[in-house]
Amino acid sequence: VPPSEIIKNSTYYGVESYVSVNRSVRPKDIKVAEKWCMEPCFITSFYEEIAQRFEDFVVRPDDVWVVSFPKCGTTWTQEMVWQICNGIDYEGAMKELLGDRFPFLEFGCILSRNWGKIDKITHADQMSSPRLIKSHMPAHLLPRQIWTVRPKLIYVARNAKDSAVSLYHHYRNLHRSECTFGNFMEAFLQDKTIYSPYHTHIIDFWRMRHENNILFITYEDMKKDLPNVIEKTTEFLGKSLTKEQVQSLADHLSFSTFSKNTSVNMHEVFGHIDKVVGSSKPDDEYNFVRKGVAGGFKDDMTPELIKRFNKWSEDEAKKWNCDEELKEIFMFSKKIKY
């Protein structure tokens, strides 16, 4: 597929151009920067409008950040972290949308200007401490002070195939992309979907996972043993929960409950988009919290496409000298779904 067509497959309503963003030099005064792959990030050209403010964002020591590649369980992790940090307050959480209590810092650069301009940087700047903040930017392009102030940061990863399928449905229904499934998968494999490249995004945080201010978790571990991940996250954040609270939070975060939670499933955003576009999302049954399954890609991908994704991850793992544990995070080679 010609490069121009690949990039065309990445466009969506109101977003027709992308830029590749990188640092010109590796920062010498940031020790962990030695571990970064420093690959250019593929992002909408709207990023240029906020780049300097994003880079210079003032970070506070008591911030908690949740970072991930898109569609890797970020929203799920955010709600878990918010509840842990707020002593389990389900009623309080329902009074305010997740996007307001846990802002997505660069949100304004990924949306069509037809939605109206959204400034989450000012929002986060004006929040009282302790703040909870989300970003999808790779390590080397996060606000510089993250690496000097060193707030607590939780990184969540997910296998490439499930991430790609979930991102396709997100593009199609939230952003109203007209790209076909096959063409979108081609774009993903070419690292030409928003926030790509996928592998190095995860590799950087895997290499930093032993830093005392970083916790690396996976979507698959959350699906397999959510109470254990809750306990690990609680300890990392310096909080404490009773066994009953841990189980209660696991129930709150279960797919059946979480997918119906109006403070996290972006119903208001979908309503606003429907109004601007003048039509509803193409898939009536689509929910922002969509399937909640590890290994669900098997329902959408052909065996041939699965092989291509596996070969891609094997090649990237070899290129970046990844260990077997990280390679399995990329590939999810298990025969089962959970």
UniProtKB/TrEMBL annotation:
Q: Which superkingdom is the protein from?
A: Eukaryota
Question: What would be an example GO MF term here?
Answer: sulfotransferase activity
Domain Sulfotransferase stretches: 61-320
Keyword line: Transferase
* Organism listed in the record: Nyssomyia neivai
Q: Which family does it belong to?
A: Belongs to the sulfotransferase 1 family.
Would the keyword Transferase be found if you checked this record's keyword annotation? yes
Under the heading PANTHER family, the entry gives:
SULFOTRANSFERASE SULT (PTHR11783)
* Keyword flag Transferase: yes
Q: What is this protein called?
A: Putative sulfotransferase
